[in-house]
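Input record, target 12 of the design panel.
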């Protein structure tokens, strides 16, 4: 099953955001989505669900609780693509 198509996924309906910020910051949208899929388990990981963090930003294996929190998925995408 493609979990990215699950409405519970934090990646649900984000394609336009990746393209928008690709055009803004010049970072390839497909590459960025690929990183998000890998790091967030198709947007279903605990960090993506509770912290809107699709990329595992500032998460460490020894303390994943230190992962950055974002008020929205869009703000996380902006931070990653900047």
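The sequence produced for target 12 reads:
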């Amino acid at each position: 099953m493609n979990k990215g198509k699950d409405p519970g996924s934090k990646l649900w309906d984000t394609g336009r955001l990746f393209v928008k910020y690709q055009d803004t910051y010049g970072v390839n949208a497909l590459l960025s989505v690929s990183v998000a899929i890998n790091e967030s388990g198709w947007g279903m990981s605990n960090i993506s669900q509770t912290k809107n963090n699709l990329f595992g930003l500032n998460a460490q294996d020894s303390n994943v609780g230190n992962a950055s929190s974002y008020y929205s998925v869009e703000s996380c995408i902006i931070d990653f693509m900047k």
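The mean pLDDT is 92.
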